[in-house]
Each structure stands twice: as C-alpha cells, then as structure tokens.
Specification:
single chain, 539 residues, mainly alpha, 23 helices, 2 strands, 2% strand, elongated
Length: 539
C-alpha cells in the first residue's frame, strides 16, 4: 500500500507528525538487552515500508499533509521527550532512507536541519550529534550505522530525489567566520556565504559511527556521495542513465564545477574516503564531454571544440588543472577508475561514429579534416586514459599497494552494464550505430550493442597483474599506453568501416599518433598540475 498516495496520506495524517516520531522512537527503545536482541531482526522491513509510505504521502497536497510536513520540520529541532537528548530530526531522518520524498519538503527539511546542526555544534566546530547511549532508541535498523546522525538518512533521501538534491546542495547560508576574510557589507559583516555543498563536502565534522557489528561505519559520507551523484546527474544514485534522460541543467553543471574544484583543492576529500569513488566516478563518466573539452585548453572564443565535443544542455566549465587532479584521484580507486575508463572508451567510440557518419550535417561536426578529427578525439581520450593510469600506478606501486587485479575486475564489471546510447555520453540524442566488424547486430538493443562493442574494445588488451615486485612505473605506463592505443584503433576502425570511410586504412597510424600524444599530454599535465599526488610520474 506504500505506493497508494491516498492511503499513505490518510495514514500519515491520522498518525500526525508528532505521532510519527513517537511511534518510531518508542517502538525502538528497548526495555532490556534481551528485548533489544529480539527486536533486532524484526524492524528493518517495517522501517523500509514506513519510509516508503511517508515518502508517497509527502506528495499529497491535502491540508492534512501540508500541516504534517510543516509540523515535522518544526519538530525537527525539539527533543522527542522531556529528558531525551534525541531530537526529531534524528528520528525522522531514519524514516527517509527509502522512497522519493516531495522536493519542496526535502529542501525545507534539509535547510532547517543544517541550521539546527550549526546551532547545536557551535558552527560545526565541536562535533555533531550525540552518540547512542545504552537506552537510546535504535533509530536505524538496517545495521549500516546507528542512525544518530540525521544527515545520513537525509542524504539517502536526496539520493533518490535528484531535483531536490540539486537544489539543496546549491542552496547557500551565512556562517560565522573566524578563519576567512569577513564580508564588508553590514548584512554579511563577520560572516561568509557557504553553499550546503561547501559545508557538507568540505567543512562538516562527520561523526564517527558504527555498524550493528561494532565496525566503523562509512554510511554518512557515502550517503552524501550518493546524494551528489543524484544532484549532478539528474537520475537517482546507482541507476544507469536512461535513454531519455534530460541534458544537464545549469544548476547541475554548477555543482559539478564545485565538486571538481573542491577535489582539486584537496584530493584527500576523495582519496581519504575511497568508498565515495564509485559515485564520484559515475558523476565524472556522465560529464566526459565537459572533461574532454577542458583538456584542450581552448578559449571561450573557440568554436571548433564545442563541435568536436557537443553538449546539448549546459556545459560545466572545468579547469584543466582541476580535471587532471580529479582523474588522478579517481584513478587510485578501482571503482572510480573503472567508471571513467570504461565510460571514456565508450564515449570515444560513439564520438568517432558520430563524426565519421556522412549523414550528420557538416555544420554540426568538427570543421577539420578526417585525419585531424580522428587524431584529436583519440588524443583527448589518450590524455584521460593516461591521467587515470597515473592514479592507478600510484595505487599499485605507492603506499596503498592496491592489487592490480582489483582494477581489472572492476573494469570487467563496469563494461557489462555501461549504456550504449550516445545521448548519455556525446550529449545529443542520436542513437549509437554498432559496427558489424565488432560483431554487433545493427538495430539491436542499445545496451546489447554497447556490450558487444565494449567487449571487443577491451578484449585481449587488459594488462596482466603486476607480479614482479620490481615492476617499474615506466613499464606500467607503457602497458597502459599500448592498451589505450589498441582500444583507439579498434574503435576508429569499427566506425570507419561502418560508415565506409575511404581513409580507414590510415586510422591505425592516426590513432597511434593521437593516443601517444594524449599520453604525453597526461604526463606533462601530471607533472605540472598534480605532482604532489604521485610518488613518481612517468616522463
């Protein structure tokens, strides 16, 4: 019944906002350890169903639900009982981990949550929410965390509601500032303006939390990464972008700019919490046209590069330095690496098909020769691949000593689920046309076509596990360059043969030159822009 809006609204209205909080808190306050153990496996499903029901109810515009939502926000900062240290936000956020809540409610709730948190914690400087005491309610029954940090459940809610997430992260507030220059005007004197993104990603002291097994919990920051994935991409976190997904909005692009610049400024914000890399990697993979543009260093007046890397919606204006540092950071994690590596190769293949297709009007394509087009596409792809390779080398040969097999496994997993629709990568609505050369049937399902293409692209080009302890950076770099060169050749050859290009016999040389130049660009950029992130950058 959680999907029935009328039923859900009536349920919530009868329970009322205060009753909702009391119900969940009292139900989960154990009177003995035995009772706590007995209930442990019974309430996780109830928590999920209650969350789904309330999410559905939140979309009702009835007077009862309007009152419920208003009161729930008001009760958020208040203790749930006279002598309790637990407040309404801590209870309600645990009933927001599932379902798609109403956007306006989420933003009103979230901004009041931020305000309350900063008031309770002296502007975020002295910890956050109280840790659970023995007789406190067990607010989260999933086991991933205690549920005492209300930001975790709220971030989970945003991860399912992309529009609300975008608006929330871009919202700003004024905060006291003892460490930065004050604003000069009277209204802002002694304070500075922060976005919710700035606060949560850069400044918040995320509290230490534990799973139901007593292990350190990563749920808080990881939920934030999921919410950022939804906010920047426009689809719920964890989903593969659909064919008809709208182009990026100005607000989504702005948030991507903030995220990229923030990681560039302090890569530890990502590398220190590697579990966020799958979400950040997915975000980057959906901004590959913007990333490829940034590597060209083209001025705003340049009219050719936007045609080489077309973008239907709003482009994120990214700095080359920031992109390099982001990719090196993502390259150090198998999930982050695979998301961008597989995405970039798919994007390169689709882009070559687009520019080599004679049916695409000339004024919509790169206004240069076929040779220049192939070389420039593979060069930019080579730089992305080379920059990721720098990060991967650091993970394998640096202090982390990551097993190289983990990267290959992640790539194999990712290539099987990557979408084959050009609109998710190239930025326009043209469907990908597969090449018979790579064994895909023209007219097949987009996902199937892409799977066949990617399988061929990565076949027999995956590097072996680094077995010798003495394997050098130079050898790993050469392996990556050769693999990328072969991938570019296969992609260009497939596109050329599909569209009967008279120059297909020259593609091997052009892609070799383009990819090698791209790897040289990656090495140069790494030395100039990210030398502090690596123990040894290849030259």
């Amino acid at each position: 019944m959680s999907g029935d809006e009328l039923f859900s609204a009536r349920f919530a209205e009868q329970l009322k906002a205060r009753g909702t909080l009391d119900f969940w808190a009292e139900l989960n306050t154990p009177s003995s350890t035995d009772l706590q153990r007995a209930r442990g496996d019974q309430f996780d499903e109830l928590q999920k169903n209650l969350s789904l029901t309330l999410a559905t109810a939140s979309h009702s515009d009835s007077s009862g639900m309007t009152k419920w939502k208003h009161e729930m926000v008001e009760l958020g900062s208040q203790p749930i009982s006279k002598n309790s240290g637990t407040v309404g936000f801590q209870v309600m956020s645990n009933l927001m981990r599932w379902g798609n809540y109403d956007n306006s409610f989420l933003n009103e709730y979230g901004n009041e949550l931020i305000k309350t948190e900063k008031e309770r914690t002296d502007n975020g400087r002295h910890g956050t929410w109280n840790t659970p005491a023995p007789m406190d309610p067990t607010l989260n029954r999933t086991g991933s965390d205690s549920g005492m940090d209300p930001m975790t459940g709220f971030m989970k809610a945003l991860s399912s509601s992309p529009d609300a997430a975008t608006e929330f992260f871009n919202d700003t507030f004024l905060t006291k500032d003892e460490d930065h220059d004050f604003k000069e005007d009277d209204e802002k004197k002694g304070r500075r303006e922060l976005s919710n993104f700035d606060y949560l990603f850069e400044e918040r002291d995320w509290p230490k939390d534990y799973t139901n097994k007593g292990e350190d919990s990563i749920s808080g920051r990881n939920s934030m990464a999921l919410a950022l994935e939804a906010a920047t991409t426009g689809h719920p976190a964890g989903e593969i972008p659909a064919t008809g997904l709208p182009a990026h909005t100005a607000s989504q692009a702005k948030l991507m700019e903030s995220l990229t610049a923030s990681i560039s400024e302090d890569p530890e914000r990502l590398t220190g919490h590697g579990y966020m890399s799958d979400s950040i990697g997915q975000i980057a993979s959906e901004y590959l046209p913007d990333i490829n543009r940034a590597t060209t260093d083209a001025s705003d007046e340049n009219k050719s590069v936007p045609k080489l890397f077309p973008i239907a919606g709003h482009a994120a204006k990214l700095e080359h330095t920031d992109v390099t540092r982001l990719l090196v950071s993502l390259g150090q994690n198998p999930e982050g690496y695979s998301a961008v590596e597989v995405g970039q190769k798919s994007y390169m293949a689709n882009l070559l098909h687009y520019h080599l297709n004679p049916e695409i009007a000339a004024d919509q394509k790169y206004p240069h020769s076929t040779e220049d087009t192939v070389k420039e596409i593979t060069r930019r792809s080579g730089e992305v691949g080379g920059t990721l390779a720098i990060g991967r080398q650091e993970a394998v040969l640096g202090e982390a000593k990551e097993d190289d097999d983990n990267f290959e496994h992640a790539v194999n997993q990712k290539k099987g689920i990557t979408s084959g629709v050009i609109g998710t990568g190239v930025g326009i609505g043209t469907s990908f046309v597969a090449s018979p050369v790579v064994g895909a049937a023209v007219g097949g399902a987009a996902g199937t076509v892409s799977g066949a293409v990617l399988e061929q692209l990565f076949k027999d080009t995956e590097p072996e596990k680094v077995k010798e302890a003495g394997k050098t950076v130079g050898e790993l770099w050469e392996d990556s360059a050769e693999r990328n060169t072969e991938l570019a050749r296969i992609a260009a050859d497939g596109a050329g043969r599909t569209h009967k290009s008279p120059d297909v016999g020259k593609f091997e040389e052009w892609t070799r030159e383009g990819t090698r130049n791209g790897f040289n660009d990656a090495s140069t950029a790494g030395q100039r822009m990210a030398d502090d992130l690596e123990t040894d950058i290849p030259t």
